[in-house]
Amino acid sequence: MANRKREPVPTPQSIASYVKRHAPRVKQSQRRHHATTETIREADHQGHHIVVKTRYEISVDGRKVLGHLGVSNDGHVHYHPIPNLSFASALDMVKAIIDVFPHQFEAKKRPHKGPGRIRHTNRTHH
User: Fold this and answer.
1) Could you tell me which residues come within 8 angstroms of residue 73 by beta carbon, excluding any fewer than 6 positions away?
2) How far is it, in rounded angstroms, from Cα 107 to Cα 126?
3) Minimal CA–CA distance to 40: which of 31, 49, 28?
């Protein structure tokens, strides 16, 4: 059996370097992808093909809420960072987002002035 070259074991420093090097590209891809969400639902009924496109642009206190959301065929909405719940309305979903991620809203509360962004992660602190 031939000796294979061993892969170096990652260190906290090498991981931090990798994350720092790739962070700008990841942030840019998230900005483009999550600003507005469009879901497409399709069904066939009595020989007709139905397509419903729903576009969501959500803001709280004047700042956009970013993240994947979807709409099921029965109209329930779900938000990717809260994977096990669905909601009867988009407003109920946004209320739950505020309840689940209160730290994202308390620290950045401001009146309805200019635009900003609210980013949601599964982390409880930054």
Assistant:
1) 41, 43
2) 12
3) 49
Helix (H, G, I), strand (E, B) or coil at 75: coil
**Number of other CB atoms surrounding residue 37 within 10 Å:** 21
pTM for this one?
0.55
The pLDDT assigned to 8 comes to 85
Per-residue pLDDT band for 2 (boundaries 50, 70, 90) equals: low
The span from the CA of 120 to the CA of 87, in Å, is 18
Q: Cα–Cα distance between 53 and 63 in angstroms, integer?
A: 24
Are the beta carbons of 68 and 34 closer than 8 angstroms? yes
pLDDT in tens, 102-114: 988 875 555 544 4
**Phi, psi (deg, nearest 5) at residue 57:** -130, 110
Cα–Cα distance between 110 and 118 in angstroms, integer?
12
